[in-house]
Amino acid sequence: MQLVPIRRDLDFGIDRIDRDLAGRWHPRGFPVSHFYNALSLFFPEGERFFIHSVRHFRERIEDPELKAAITAFIGQEAMHGREHDQYNDLIRQAGLPADALERYISTLLGWLKAHLGPSTQLSVTLALEHFTAMLAHLLLSEPGLLDGAEPKLRALWRWHAAEETEHKAVAFDVYQAAVGRGAVAYTLRSGAFAIVMPLFLAHVLAFQAQLLRADPKRPRGMRQWLEFGRFLGGRRGMLRQMIRPGLDYFRPGFHPWDQNNRALIEAVDELAATYSRPTAPIRRAA
Ligand SMILES: [Fe+2]
Ligand SMILES: [Fe+2]
């Protein structure tokens, strides 16, 4: 049975955060803060790309529950884009090169839209949705990744993570319904993941490096870099904990809900109670 996500219109007040905090909103230091910032720069354009690639197949979907899930998926990703636009404004206002990096992403994704067929575009979306689902699981279950962070940004990341968990199978189900489940569909989706993941991570790290280089407040010395190394590769590190679920994606019978982590979605209820816009009540998307 399809889990139909809920579109929530929340406002975290990111525009009220002191721009001085842009590079040090995370207690584990500048490199960690700018790693998250680099990810955020990808989201608005990236999520518009996800919407574009899923929408292309909407008319071919007959299952009414999956159709409803697509509508909610589009609504959620649009909201994520809007809030991350505000987040990215904070990076911009801190004097960091958000504009140039966002322009680069826009050009890159524009190229993909112009040169890849719809099924391949959807396979790229699937790969990145699996990455965001793995990231989301960790952000909601691994305290060391967000605890002690600036409360509004911590709330934004947790809300995004809960909704990414909630809709983690929507693009995948569209892919299975529209592209198929056979050998060709498997080769395309696993090949896309194998190519997209290293390229995406290399881009995020390159963006992080540019943000750090442009940040006059960053400290010198190795201490924060050692902490960043632990943040990514330590025993409870983010990337280290993605290896197993990442490899799982290559199983021919893989489905995102093989890992049943629905309980993590409940984190969003408390956030919705605190950050809902008064004029826009939470509603189940049609
Ligand atoms: Fe999203
Ligand atoms: Fe998503």
Strands, total number? 0
Count of runs of 4 or more consecutive helical residues: 10
> Strand count, sense and closure of the main sheet?
none
Terminal residue distance:
17 Å
Helix proportion: 55-70%
The distinct bound ligands, ions and cofactors come out as: fe (ii) ion
List unreliable stretches of 5+ residues. Answer: none
Principal-axis shape: globular
Number of domains: 1
Q: Please identify the oligomeric state.
A: single chain
Portion of residues in beta strands equals: under 5%
Cα-based radius of gyration, to the nearest Å: 18 Å
- The class by helix and strand makeup works out as mainly alpha
SSE string: HHHHHHHHHH
Average predicted confidence as pLDDT: 94
Task: Produce the secondary structure layout.
Elements: H1 30-55, H2 64-93, H3 98-115, H4 118-141, H5 151-166, H6 170-178, H7 183-214, H8 223-233, H9 243-248, H10 267-275
Helix pairs in contact: 1-2, 1-3, 1-4, 1-7, 2-5, 2-6, 4-5, 4-6, 4-7, 5-10
The structure holds fe (ii) ion (FE2) (2 copies).
